[in-house]
Amino acid sequence: MKALIIGGGIAGPVAAMALQKVGIDSTLYEAHPIGAHGVGTTMGLSTNGLAALQILDAHRAIADAGFPCPRGVMWLGDGRRLGEDVPTPLPDGTTAIQLLRADLYAALHEHAATRGVRTEYGRRLVEVDHHGDQVVARFADGGEAVGDVLIGADGMRSATRRFVAPGAPRPRYCGIFGTNGFAHGLNLDTEPGTFHMVFGRRAFFGYVQREDGCVWWFVNVPATREPAPAELAAIPSEQWRHRLHELLAVDASPAARIIQATPPGYDWFVSHQMKAPRTWHRGRAVLIGDAAHVTSPSSGQGAAMAIEDAIELARCLRDLPLAQALPAYQRLREGRLRKVHAGARQVNRSKSATGLARVLRDAMFPVLMKRFGSPEALAWLYDHRIDFDSTVTS
Ligand SMILES: Cc1cc2nc3c(=O)[nH]c(=O)nc-3n(C[C@H](O)[C@H](O)[C@H](O)COP(=O)(O)OP(=O)(O)OC[C@H]3O[C@@H](n4cnc5c(N)ncnc54)[C@H](O)[C@@H]3O)c2cc1C
């Protein structure tokens, strides 16, 4: 079997390595002329994502591209501690990490390249077609490629999705936008690697200090109307810094100090989530990662879900004929994805609450955290392990 993988982000190289493990040859086609684009944003990779990478013996290489964050602590803006989460590490001690998105892309590509995965850059998919019992990918450069299965790992604006599920739901705005940064010279009174999440009075703030003292942070600002990226970029950095300080100084957290210690200059992101279409496959084409379902950044699970998708798909293609493998893959994934989406919607509602809704949130939060935010309540997410050696049945 020959697989055409469209998109060399996160799901793409993982799919190529997973297919190689089950004896399926593949080529990655990436639209951009070089890899590791999208420099700047920080992200988390949780233990379930790293456990999935362990199946490919890739988890250490990826963990080394970031720094360990074994513990998360949640706070309210008034300084009340809501609870903490310490997901079970992998048997070799690997814990959740924080890293730059660009470093995750680069580490995955490097790892895939050392295993002989072929990547063709500058190949933008424009059309998918079927020809007898083969699938054809047509590219913007006029070229084409023919294979037995086409895997759409081409992200939120997937061209493959237009073919597989033309009526698919569109990405929806989650009520928050945000930015991130790095502060030096603060020496906060916190354990390095503990990720603090502050549900503040006017905005949400997340921060973690590295061993070397550098503080990685991000902020989520509520806004009922979706701002256009150009609108956010048009506001001068100094003005934004002042505004962020105003939003965060009302809280009993070091957020305002962290903003002051960060040189102004912000890249803004607007949070979206997109439900999966009813069917994730059509003919010989199938969707994985953000192409199938966009999980908002608030879940901290977009990359982990893309990795899990890629590995489960390879398992299905190993054990079943194609016509059964693609529906089996969707069945294995969709329930878990729905749960992750529901959790992210809940977090987004909490982050975007203002006025009375915010007061109610703060009153209810301690109770809700006990029920939904405890380590036991989150075990289904972080302790999920794919049993790669077990056979998938239709
Ligand atoms: C601000 C922000 C913060 C985030 N934080 C986290 C976090 O903390 N934890 C987490 O797990 N997730 C996080 N995410 C989500 C995570 O980045 C995505 O879920 C993840 O990148 C999805 O991987 P993917 O491979 O499916 O798609 P992508 O990473 O988007 O890769 C898609 C690839 O396909 C290529 N492509 C697109 N169109 C075509 C085409 N027509 N032909 C060929 N190639 C094409 C693109 O160039 C790209 O390389 C965050 C996202 C954002 C925006």
Automatic annotation (TrEMBL):
> Which part of the chain is the FAD-binding domain?
2-317
Q: What's the superkingdom here?
A: Bacteria
Gene Ontology molecular function: any one: monooxygenase activity
> Is Oxidoreductase tagged as a keyword?
yes
| The keyword Nucleotide-binding appears for this protein | no
One Pfam entry for this protein is FAD_binding_3
> What InterPro entries does the annotation carry?
FAD-bd, FAD-dep_Monooxygenase_BioMet, FAD/NAD-bd_sf
Q: Which UniProt keywords apply?
A: Monooxygenase, Oxidoreductase
Descriptive protein name? 2-polyprenyl-6-methoxyphenol hydroxylase
According to the entry, what is the taxonomic lineage of the organism?
Bacteria, Bacillati, Actinomycetota, Actinomycetes, Streptosporangiales
